[in-house]
Amino acid sequence: MEARTPLTLITGSLGCGKTTLVRRILRAGGRRMAVLMNEFGEIPIDSRVIQGENIEIVELAGGCVCCSMTGEFEAAIREIIEKVRPECIIVEATGLAEADALVFEVEDNLPDVRLDCVVCIVDAYMSVRHPHVGHTARNHLRAAHIVLINKIDLVATADVKEVEARVRGLNRNAVLFKTVGCDVDPLLLFGLELENHPVFTSRRGEPEFQSFVFTSRVLLDDRKFHKLVSELPECVYRAKGFARFPGGSYLFNFVVGRVDIEAFPADRTQLVFIGRGLNTFREAILAGLKGCEVRDEL
Ligand SMILES: Nc1nc2c(ncn2[C@@H]2O[C@H](COP(=O)(O)OP(=O)(O)OP(=O)(O)O)[C@@H](O)[C@H]2O)c(=O)[nH]1
């Protein structure tokens, strides 16, 4: 009988650093890995970011593996094993996926796969600004074997301690790391044989998230764009994608009011906005973005 393929599940709220961790693992190399990404939003931004790093990718855009796309999730895993025969599989679950349902899915419906490790990333900055731990976040934390308290560069040491206490209140056994840019040794995330991981019954009820996309082949005025982004309503929780200005194109990341931008090749502007109650602001934001367009492409 062939050995089961180990699967590492990476969970955590929107924008906490999951893709950052996946990129770190891929850079470290060493194993034939397959990465499965599940996106909330209509375009698979994360998968595009990963492309070119010599890795197999299966994109499940526009849904949530633990509920509406459960069937596809299993099929994707089976296909990865059949076609790629990876030494391990990494699943980056959407910030909205329920970790317990994913764990259940892997253990009960995927006999060729062995759950190696559940990593939960906590966004320390977010956790300080919004200390209430919602149902999904609690669920992620309780199911975790390893917890990264990430973005500690953005908060005071005393605040990190408070975040740590909250994490410990929900999960006493997980191995805990405090990180910047998820700078944990990827080796620590693999090779763990964890037999007794907790599984929790699934319960829905988190407020609805909504998303929309802005796409443009016209260059944007960067000054206007940055002004618009700095004035986004509070309900915009996460925005990401590619933005093209006269000076170049960029990978754009926005998490609860913080903007990160790095040079990145892109042939158009393509941005996803995610938030609670976002539909009320959708038209205004789209009109604002349209207003940033400066000139047609040459
Ligand atoms: N200051 C700071 N920024 C970080 C850290 N880790 C990640 N980031 C930034 O946070 C933003 C979001 O990181 P991602 O890795 O894309 O987060 P994600 O969890 O994959 O996001 P979703 O796929 O939308 O859920 C990016 O701009 C990262 O560069 C950190 O430790 N400190």
UniProtKB/TrEMBL annotation:
The keyword Chaperone applies. Residues 209-293 form the CobW C-terminal domain. Keywords: Chaperone, Hydrolase, Nucleotide-binding. It comes from the Bacteria. The keyword Hydrolase applies. GO terms for cellular component: cytoplasm. GO terms for molecular function: hydrolase activity; nucleotide binding. It catalyses: GTP + H2O = GDP + phosphate + H(+). Pfam families: cobW (PF02492), CobW_C (PF07683). SUPFAM superfamilies: Hypothetical protein YjiA, C-terminal domain, P-loop containing nucleoside triphosphate hydrolases. Coiled coil: none annotated. Zinc chaperone that directly transfers zinc cofactor to target proteins, thereby activating them. Zinc is transferred from the CXCC motif in the GTPase domain to the zinc binding site in target proteins in a process requiring GTP hydrolysis. Belongs to the SIMIBI class G3E GTPase family. ZNG1 subfamily. This is Cobalamin synthesis protein, P47K. It comes from Syntrophobacter fumaroxidans (strain DSM 10017 / MPOB).
